Amino acid sequence: MTQTKRYLTPFFLALFLSIGITVAGEPLTPWSAGYLDIHHISTGKGNATFFVFPDGTTLLIDAGAATLPIPYAEARPNDSLRPGEWIARYIEHFHPQENAILDYALLTHFHGDHMGFADESAPQSRSGAYRLAGITDVAEQVPIRTLIDRGWADYNYPVPLGDDNMKNYRSFLDFQTHQKGMKVEQLSPGSKDQIVLRIDRERYPAFEVRNLAANGVVWTGVGTETRNHFPPLESLPSKDRPSENMCSIALRVSYGKLDYYTGLSRPTRRLYPAVPGAYQGSHRTTRRAGPE
């Protein structure tokens, strides 16, 4: 990939708000200040969404690299690289800066199609401290300033998370925080000040990232107030405790008239009735919104 050729391929889809529809095979115009670009990257192995905010701040949500086959999905653009490598190359290609750095990376939950799955076949990182798959693969090529997930720092809700993949992830966090200066945070539901414009926040007052939910704690829509959607764990038999999907993070990105929801695979009012803007819809488009 080069900065001189920006083409849409089956690697991702694009729908540009305010400037019309760009179809496969046509050049994709570069991001420019004042625009919000949302790229849904389809590797065929899980979810990955790359945001360029109006001031050039960047966010990656998820970096899926599932090892089990996903129905009706083929490796995209091909299987010559690992999914995390393709995601990193894509970010480097469309990043507004020559030296790509992710201001934020966020994992919605701890499944391989969202964070990557590092089994024994996964290669070691350059440091040898962890294996490469999904988010760890991305960070090997594109530095991350702040990583946000639902479990930091104990990773014990609703049960202790200690399988081999989580152990690898925590080894990655330990190395990155101590050796590379990466910050790690647990998502704070209700907050609009955890993911912010880092370059020129004052210039774009109509932009906001609102944390809607994590671990069943849901924003009420009033100030930063939240409520717990789940009953106390001690009141539930083990078979009825929240699943990993149910504990997933949900966000709303707002810019002018655009409200963009990302969260559970099938968000509904029944599941999160108090979440303003929660709707059921496709995650499979890339959007651009800009000043009117």
Q: What is the CATH level 1 assignment? A: Alpha Beta
Oligomeric category: single chain
What coarse outline follows from CA principal-axis ratios?
globular
How is the biggest beta sheet arranged? 8 strands, mixed
The total count of helices amounts to 4
CATH fold naming: Metallo-beta-lactamase, Chain A
**Tally of discrete structural domains:** 1
Going by helix content, strand content and strand pairing, the class is: alpha/beta
The Rg value, from CA coordinates, equals 18 Å
Fraction of residues in β-strands: 15-25%
Number of strands: 13
Strand order of the largest sheet: 1-13-2-3-4-5-6-7
Distance between the termini: 31 Å
Give the name of the CATH architecture. 4-Layer Sandwich
Order of helices and strands: EEEEHEHHEHEEEEEEE
Which ranges are low-confidence, i.e. pLDDT below 50, for 5 or more consecutive residues?
1-20, 266-286
How much helicity do the residues have? 10-25%
Arithmetic mean of pLDDT: 86
